[in-house]
């Protein structure tokens, strides 16, 4: 059965694939992003029959921004809160302004996204909230403001699951590790071997693609996950499981 799915950050490397995945499964997507040109391109690619663009900035509440799309398509049944970005890579390069930007987009922006659909989901007694976090929210891996925001999202997800479960609403968060998107291009230009160099930290010695993230999100939004809520799911090639090289040094054993 077709559902109405709101995807934020819809035009990014992960967001556009998220939109495509839900369209492939017959859902109607409300694609929210800040850039109208990018949204127009996304609609042309995926088809206006199944994708409705919503141009909005998550720095502010978005109820008014999605109102006409909801009137056209129906109430949102699935929210994929995907919008996010990182600025200062270290504490030394993070100032008050960049700290606020990262918290505003990654944490407060997600709050605005949830608030835009929460009341209607409660009224209809069902809904699925899937937040896109990061392994940065689970351990220190650089980008301290971004990481603090993503850690906040994990806690927020658990609060949503606890308080909204009685209304038939599930809330989960997917935490990607390194994902091969254009966001890595600057680092690839600085070091063409960056992905090869990073493999040693990942037990599977591989990296997620946007499609891998979309598969995890789609599953958590689907009826197959009907009793799964409050979960933070790493999609990270085993990064959060531990590291063989460190274990070998700690145990002085070959692993």
Automatic annotation (TrEMBL):
Coiled coil location: none
Q: Does the keyword ATP-binding apply?
A: no
| Gene3D superfamilies assigned to the protein according to its UniProt record, in alphabetical order | NAD(P)-binding Rossmann-like Domain
Q: Look up keyword Oxidoreductase and say if it applies.
A: yes
Q: Which UniProt keywords apply?
A: Oxidoreductase
Q: Name one GO molecular function term.
A: oxidoreductase activity
Concerning InterPro entries, the annotation shows: NAD(P)-bd_dom_sf, SDR_DHRS6-like, SDR_fam
> Where is the secretion signal located?
none
**Superkingdom assignment:** Bacteria
| SUPFAM superfamilies per the UniProt record, alphabetical | NAD(P)-binding Rossmann-fold domains (SSF51735)
Family stated for the protein in its record:
Belongs to the short-chain dehydrogenases/reductases (SDR) family.
The name under which this protein is listed is: Short chain dehydrogenase family protein
